[in-house]
Amino acid sequence: MLRSVLPWVLGCGLLLAAPAPMAGQAAPSAPPSALAFRSLGPAVAGGRVTAVAGVPGHPRIYYAGAAGGGVWKSDDGGVSWHSIFDREPDSIGAIALAPSNPNLVWVGTGEVNLRDDVITGHGVYFSPDAGASWKYMGLGDAGQISSIVVDPHDPNRVWVGVFGNAWRPSPTRGVYRTTDGGRTWRRVLYVNDTTGVASLIMEPGNPRVLLAAMWQAWRRPWALQDGGPASAIYRSRDGGRSWRKLSAGLPPGPLGRIGLAAAPSDPTRIYALIEARRGRLWVSRDLGSHWREVNNNHALDDRPWYFSFLAVAPHDPNRVFFLASGLYESNDGGRSARRIGAGLHGDYHAMWLAPGNSGRILEGSDGGVALSLDGGRSWRFLADLPIEQFYQVAADTKVAFDVCGGLQDNSAWCGPSRVPGPRISGADWFTVTGGDGQYAVPAPSNPDIIYTDAQNGRTRRVNLQTHTARVERPTILGVRDLTPSRLRYRFNWTAPLAVSAAHANTVFLAGNALFKSTDGGRLWRPISPDLTRNSKARQTTNGGPIEPDISGAVTFDTILSFGLAPGHERTIWVGTDDGLVQVTRDGGRHWANVTPPGLPPWGRVHQIAPSPFDPASCYVTFDFHETGNERAYAFKTHAYGRTWTRIAAGLPPRTPVRVVREDPDRRGFLVAGTSTGVYYSRDDGAHWGRFTRLPTVTVTDLKFVPRSHSLVVATHGRGLFVLDNLIPLEDAPPPGAGRLYVFPTVPAYRLNQVALSTRSLSNFTTPNPPRGIEVNYFLKTAALAPAMITITGADGGVVDRLRGPARAGLNRVLWPLRYAPPTPFASLRRPGPLVAPGAFTIRVAAAGETRTVSAAVRPDPQFPDNAANFAAETHAGLEARRLRSALDVLLSRLMALHRQLALRRQHPAAAALDRRVLAQLGSSYNLRVQPGSEDWIHYKTTIGDLLTKAEARLTPGYDLPPDPRALALLARERRAIALARARFNRLLATQIAAYNRQARARRAPTLAAGAPLPPLRTR
């Protein structure tokens, strides 16, 4: 099937790449821009920033590394940012610039903040040109990388602190060193396969002395093991060749995560934040030989496994910054500290202080990046980074649909896929719940009702019309109150939520059982038993031997996803975080465990997707990366789970799959979201190709929008993306289609919208989808002549003619729902009038063949369709176009005469005639008004100005008849233009004819004046 159906797609080089070319088949060409994803961002909230860096002496250059969004760079002091790491791994653990040459940039992938959403790193990368290009430098199996240190004298000497794979014992843990710029690496410090580097620092200015904080920790799907006897601080005095464990004055074990910082102005002073049973901050004044406890204030490091970062001011060894849930500053060597950074987002992870005494500080947190230029007294949030970490996405049912989704630690937001203004900005987005917003789902039957939940199953119902909300939860007690094994109902951090398609007050929420409410979330009742494995041994309090962590971020044996079968909502499919698939066909009275056989244990079903065509069909993925297994697992069933077919062949074998969904506009067309990007299948998962025009990013959810044939992609680090108009992928030329094939069109809408946005705090904007009907056509081979596209109305009359490219493969032309424009004058190009809603035919002629396709323009479904008013608007618009063309032809003729006479102005007769021509021209068009200025304010209106005024006022509003005053002005202008054309004809017959007779008598050049203009119909 791949051989017969897919070559047309692969050959045209869309934004797709085949898994591998078949024998004799050419690889896809570079993808065209016709089918490109739009980044919706938004940049209104942050995402976790795990590494920051600046350039000493260059206050405009900064780098930021995100937990799931790659590396970004600013060249204008943080005002704007651009991604410089699109094709490399998306999770960043460390960024280091060579002190001897800041254009030499090192990046270590894989953050070391061990949340359950941590993304595995894949090695070290190097840029020789300040991020313009990147080279993979090895350590691909390192997992998470915490630190990179570059020799200040020799940029080829680099040390890398490797924590290792967060999810399994990892023999790659330890400190690595290269002396040849990354061509070869040698591990110089290793403790064991569960202990990796949390922090690696160098004595300022002395690359012979290094200190490494080793952290014994690992994650399982059900718990974080934080700390152990192997956690310790080590020191090398010979550039990393040998190491000694430090202990004098340090707290006894077990220890957890340790953060280290050296004082640049007092190089032998070292600070350490240590997760211990007593003490928090420790200091050494002899490079770690001896330590003493300074402070036991837990606020300096309140969740050590997530924070444990500190930094010392470059000019004052007593001034120390502590990054935890709050940002703290000490001016007395850590004995006391005060909270700073009022108004900034909490949960701080990274800081860079400019050397010297400039006061420049760059910090990274769960909320993004902030900059201080006065040493931390005031801060500016740098709001242009679209690095949001979405958990899921939903779309409402409006024509200009809105999207909603939950963000890691940055609330849940809703925003538009298109706006009436020129571009979408942050001002168009709004929050619908706070905290770690998880799910945000508009009710399909009433998009003004939005249901959300935040961490641990706290639901909220928001009414956009009344601006009211209420918060409910099926249970009161949670993990803060009882050990998970003692709770009757357990909720995942990302507890899933869904709303009935037909009833806005019917909503479902999942814990370890599935709950249903029929009164908008006020009262909940379980409609299932515990659908998980219910392994009590794994329902433990999270944390480790030093202190627990009971935020609820890890609550195991819960439902992680469920789906209502479209059109058959009594059929509900459930997927759990412990690897089970359950289904009910009677609304919850009876359930069946239909988990595919032969799977490893403890997989996570992030999303489960019932088919939009058949309640017996469902698509499910299993993610085992939290058990150390990164293989791809995806399955389908067409028999209510009695049998399953694996559909992962062709997906990257070492990339977990998060979601597979079926396109409701084309049966068997699937899209898969993985830990590195998005893939598609046109044959129900038998074969897969990749969308290559997305950055490398973890995809957490996908939503099809059937009305517009759109695909919305939720990522955990790069926000949302939209692919508009999937028809060229959903459809295929039938056998024997010839050289030309024209795809079906998506109906367009005359929307009644007005721009009401306020100014956004962020400069980030994104384009709207195309406004109009996209004409997509496929050519087997390139044609020499352009394609000719003709749009006709229901009466067969020509509406517009367009030219299009004739490249081999996919070609796209946009018809903007307008009639052909009027005849232009000079550089003035005015659009034609909008068409009324109705049926149209599009004819494409290319490569010697002609094909037709139907198209529809529809009224805004939110308003009554008044066909008579639309027809009157179109009639008036066409009349205005006729008059505009008549005027512009006249102006063009007069301008042509003026240019000829200007070349002959030395002759008295030419100068006199030119004055008459300019007088006629000036009565209809003011030559003295300079384009782009407000010169018009100095002059009375001309015939052309009044016609513009009439055109602008013909349509007072959507679906309203033309303004009678505008019609009267149009009639007045009709008479004025007719008189002006008649006056021109008299000029041709008299002065211009006389001038040409005299010129011929003198054997001088005559004027090319042309024939008289035909009379203008005035009724």
Task: Walk me through what this model shows.
It contains seven helices and 68 strands. It has 1019 residues and is mostly beta strands. The chain has a five-stranded antiparallel beta sheet, with no helix packed on it. Strands 15, 16, 17, 18 and 19 form a five-stranded antiparallel beta sheet that branches. Strand 41 (497-499) and strand 42 (507-510) form a beta hairpin. Helix 6 (943-952) runs antiparallel to helix 7 (964-1001).
Topology of helices and strands:
Blueprint: H1 2-5, H2 7-12, E1 16-17, E2 37-41, E3 49-55, E4 58-66, E5 70-74, E6 82-83, E7 92-98, E8 101-109, E9 124-127, E10 135-136, E11 144-150, E12 158-164, E13 174-178, E14 186-189, E15 195-203, E16 206-220, E17 223-226, E18 232-236, E19 244-246, E20 258-263, E21 266-274, E22 281-284, E23 292-295, E24 309-312, E25 320-323, E26 327-330, E27 338-340, E28 348-353, E29 361-365, E30 368-372, E31 380-382, E32 394-395, E33 402-406, E34 412-416, E35 423-425, E36 430-433, E37 439-443, E38 446-454, E39 458-463, E40 468-472, E41 497-499, E42 507-510, E43 514-517, E44 525-526, E45 559-565, E46 568-576, E47 581-584, E48 592-593, E49 608-610, E50 618-622, E51 633-637, E52 645-646, E53 657-662, E54 670-674, E55 678-681, E56 689-691, E57 699-705, E58 710-715, E59 720-723, H3 727-730, E60 740-742, E61 748-750, E62 765-767, E63 773-779, E64 787-792, E65 798-804, E66 809-815, E67 838-846, E68 849-859, H4 867-902, H5 908-924, H6 943-952, H7 964-1001
Parallel strand pairs: 61-68
Antiparallel strand pairs: 1-56, 2-59, 3-4, 4-5, 5-6, 7-8, 8-9, 9-10, 11-12, 12-13, 13-14, 15-16, 16-17, 16-18, 18-19, 20-21, 21-22, 22-23, 24-25, 25-26, 26-27, 28-29, 29-30, 30-31, 32-33, 33-34, 34-36, 35-62, 37-38, 38-39, 39-40, 41-42, 42-43, 43-44, 45-46, 46-47, 47-48, 49-50, 50-51, 51-52, ...
